[in-house]
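User: I'm putting together notes for a lab meeting next week and I want to include a structural view of one of the chains we've been expressing. I don't have a solved structure, so I'd like a prediction I can at least talk through. The sequence is below, exactly as it appears in our construct file.
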Amino acid sequence: MRTTPTTRCTTTVVATAALVLALTGCSAGGSTRVDAMATADRFLRDVEHGDGRAACALLVPDARQDVEDHTGRSCADGLTTLDLPTPADGRSRVYGRAAIVEADGHAVFLARSGDTWRVRAAGCSPVPDAPYECTVDGS
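Assistant: Thanks for the context. Below is the predicted structure for the 139-residue chain, given as structure tokens.
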């Protein structure tokens, strides 16, 4: 097969399109949503079972500081005293390096940190014509 400028251009366009699809599939695919939902669920389950240490390990640093500031205790001790919702089946949406997991009228906001998700805010309830109001807020 003889290569012409047109076939080289077509080959380049097809290769570029395949690369773009592969990259966007990895960054916004189902597994990313599933991973975000699993992190939110694990966080809420840890709190529900009184494992503040494990739950705090899933928080971004500013959220850990928020827990300590509002409870006057260490993150591990203070987190279990907060009124956070119990885990529930919900839905997740991913926006690049940010995600929201919503269930039963509550939301958990997450941020991507390397290859993992970390909880940025939790126990969040929507407020009409305003941002969410969150029990834990590390935004």
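A couple of points you could mention at the meeting. Residues 30-137 form a domain with the Nuclear Transport Factor 2; Chain: A, fold (CATH 3.10.450). The two ends are 58 Å apart (CA to CA).

User: Perfect, that's what I needed.
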